[in-house]
Design goal:
The protein has a three-stranded mixed β-sheet with strand order 4-1-5. The chain is mainly alpha-helical. The protein has a domain of about 120 residues: Cytochrome Bc1 Complex, Chain D, domain 2. The protein is elongated. Strand 2 and strand 3 form a beta hairpin.
Length: about 200
């Protein structure tokens, strides 16, 4: 076999050099790990409430033990995605709760909307919305429904009376056979008007 001396030789394959990680970098990484572990162990279980939502840990434990529902937490978890954290909704898509007559008006109507949901057009603050409100009867207890509606009725300038779990339970019992969403507020009004007082 003959070789051609005019073809350049291949370069040698690269190899890992014997350069270790710089000691300064290793020292920084080690210092960060030591700081993180010590930080975890130095924290108290009660902690500084100013770092969280400013509620005292004893209050949270008492509320959890009593079964009390937090309307603000339920709203944040279930309602804020559509109606927004500021209660302003999304223009043309989801109606606002701030200043809404449906929120501050008859609690029976608001309870029925939350319990069974609603489809069809509804006018809120001069704008007509035609979306779908999901039903929460199977997902929230009477106390939770009362708590979230009480929260909404007292936020963003709303000033309506709270709704307790007993009132929510009565509203649930009133329409316990219903398994479909209300078709607009007129259907709710007709159903509530048909109930003997």
């Amino acid at each position: 076999m003959t070789t051609n001396n005019n073809i350049p030789a291949e370069h040698a394959d690269p190899v890992e050099q014997g350069n270790p990680l710089p000691k300064v970098v290793m020292g920084l990484v080690l210092a960060l790990v030591v700081w993180a572990v010590s930080y975890i162990f130095m924290q108290e279980a009660g902690g500084d409430v100013a770092l969280g939502d400013r509620r005292d840990p004893a209050t949270l434990v008492a509320a959890a033990g009593s079964g009390a529902a937090s309307g603000a937490q339920i709203f944040a978890a279930r309602c804020a995605a559509c109606h927004q954290a500021n209660g302003q909704g999304l223009p043309g898509v989801f109606p606002p709760l701030a200043g809404s007559a449906w929120v501050m008006g008859d609690p029976g109507t608001a309870l029925q909307i939350v319990l069974h949901g609603m489809t069809g057009p509804i006018e809120v603050l001069g704008t007509t919305y035609n979306g779908v409100m999901p039903a929460f009867a199977s997902e929230l207890s009477d106390n939770e429904i009362g708590a979230v509606l009480s929260h909404v009725r007292a936020q963003w300038g709303n000033n309506a009376a709270p709704i307790d779990g007993t009132t929510a339970a009565a509203a649930r019992a009133l329409t316990s056979t219903r398994n479909t969403a209300w078709n607009g507020p007129e259907e709710i009004a007709a159903a509530l008007a048909a109930v003997p007082k």
